[in-house]
Write a structure and sequence with these properties.
Elements: H1 3-9, H2 22-39, H3 44-51, H4 55-63, H5 72-81, H6 86-99, H7 115-126, E1 129-134, H8 145-155, H9 161-175, E2 185-191, H10 193-196, H11 202-216, E3 221-226, E4 240-244, E5 253-257, E6 262-265, H12 268-284, H13 288-302
Parallel strand pairs: 1-2, 2-3
Antiparallel strand pairs: 1-4, 4-5, 5-6
């Protein structure tokens, strides 16, 4: 079996996934096409010029970005240009077809799910490891419904009740990935101030901290708190989400959220900087068992 066929054979397992994973599949199609192009000895500019594509279009196809997957005609043209064999072409086209199946989150209206947020949710659904650091709120995947409602109302004080309910529903649906049969590993680090910032009242905070304790006791969840008395912690100035995927040459992705937009970093030099920062922060934070002790103590002292 050729190297291309061996590489392609590893993709076949993704054809049998019960849940659509369009973001992951778009990335896999793009990575495979980039590999075939390199095997054919073509640069991105040469391939784009040969087919009358813009460089930006081919770059977008190979990176798997955009709300929609590339068209079948474009992928077929690329496969023909690269001299792809029947087997490789067949698997890739089947993946492309599955990439067009909408994920559950894509059924929400675009006001709740702008393109950058659509991409984040799709990446989280596909990740095998999710690392996150939060400085203001409990990480979204670990929030209770009541706490989420308080967060939404704080951020969108004029939002109608129906929109608030939909946003809470969306957050809770996202969190379900932690209770599926093969959940990702979640490693969350939060600043202690998050535990002290009252949202929704004492009852809401007590329920939220109790939920954090229960989640932290799950084997696939690691939770650490950076105490307030660690004054020289190497904490990033903004929340960070770091996503890692299972092999197949997919790059790690760092997600940095702003008020109405987000940045996705995929360059290895950049993502490694954030990984090292999260590693340092984990060393400075309380150990997981100490974190659970702090959560219990905070519940009893502040929210009893």
């Amino acid at each position: 079996m050729s190297a291309e066929s061996r590489r392609t054979s590893r993709l076949e397992t993704y054809l049998d996934r019960s849940e659509p994973a369009p973001t992951l599949l778009k990335m896999l199609v793009g990575v495979q096409l980039a590999g075939l192009r390199e095997d054919a000895g073509l640069s991105q500019d040469q391939a784009a010029k040969a087919l009358g594509f813009s460089g930006a279009k081919l770059s977008r196809i190979e990176s798997g970005k955009g709300r929609r997957p590339p068209t079948e005609s474009d992928v077929r043209a690329l496969l023909q240009l690269y001299g792809s064999g029947d087997y490789e072409s067949s698997v890739l086209l089947k993946l492309l077809q599955r990439a067009g199946e909408p994920g559950w989150w894509q059924r929400y209206d675009k006001r709740l799910m702008p393109e950058w947020f659509d991409r984040l949710v799709g990446l989280q659904e596909a990740a095998v490891t999710i690392r996150t650091f939060e400085i203001q709120y409990v990480p979204g995947l670990l929030q209770t419904a009541a706490y989420t409602e308080a967060v939404v109302k704080r951020g969108l004080p004029n939002a109608p009740a129906a929109e608030v309910r939909r946003r809470v529903e969306l957050r809770m649906r996202r969190a379900e990935l932690l209770s599926r049969e093969e959940p990702p590993q979640l490693w969350a680090i939060i600043d202690e101030s998050v535990l002290l910032r009252v949202l929704g009242g004492k009852d809401v905070m007590r329920e939220q901290l109790d939920h954090l304790i229960k989640m932290a006791e799950q084997p696939h969840v690691t939770l650490q708190v950076v105490p307030l008395d660690v004054t020289d912690a190497s904490a990033p100035a903004i929340p960070v989400t770091y996503l890692r995927f299972g092999g197949l040459d997919l790059p790690d992705v760092v997600y940095l959220e702003h008020i109405r937009s987000a940045n996705f970093l995929e360059d290895r030099d950049e993502t490694e900087e954030y990984r090292f920062a999260l590693d340092r922060l984990a060393d400075e934070a309380l150990k997981p068992r100490e974190t659970i002790d702090l959560l219990r103590a905070t519940m009893e002292s502040r929210y009893a």
